[in-house]
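Supplementary notes (optional reading)

For those who missed the lab, this is the record we used. Protein: Ribosomal protein S18 acetylase RimI. Length: 171 residues.
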Amino acid sequence: MENELSIRQYRSADHKHVLQLHVEPMDDVDAFVEGDDKLDADLEDIELAYLDRGGDFLVGEINGQIAAMGAYKPPSEYFTQFLGDLPEKTAEITRMRVASESQGQGFGEKIYDELEHRARDDGFETLILDTTHRQKAAQGLYEKKDFREIKRQDVEFDDDRFTMIFYKKVL
């Protein structure tokens, strides 16, 4: 069926397309931060950063083309820097993206739903994530999925100031 999203686990052959999808939707809302390779180091080796660490990385395809993605993994030090100690069975939801031409069709919600299902099956009991104040659609999705905002933090990166919003959900 046309415009049907098929969700599956990331494969190494997807790498180039995942990198492209990582940038485009973020640029569209002026939320992409360039200049620090550490911010995207997890995307250099997705298998190592996600699959080998007890997480998952999903892609959604439409007619064989990757149109959406998302992942979860044990929390990075970044979260403990801002949030302090986290419950032991916590997963970080990250890399949620939907291609610009595919937005508004519920694909982000479908990716999220599958991530939550898999995280729960993997034994995680709490989900955390962050987004920026510029990403209104993401905020709406997370709030619709019963995440609650737990902190806002103003940050500056390469002369760009923005507000990070941290969310949490107990499964």
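If you only remember one thing from this example: Helices lie at 15-28, 46-49, 77-83, 107-121, 136-144.
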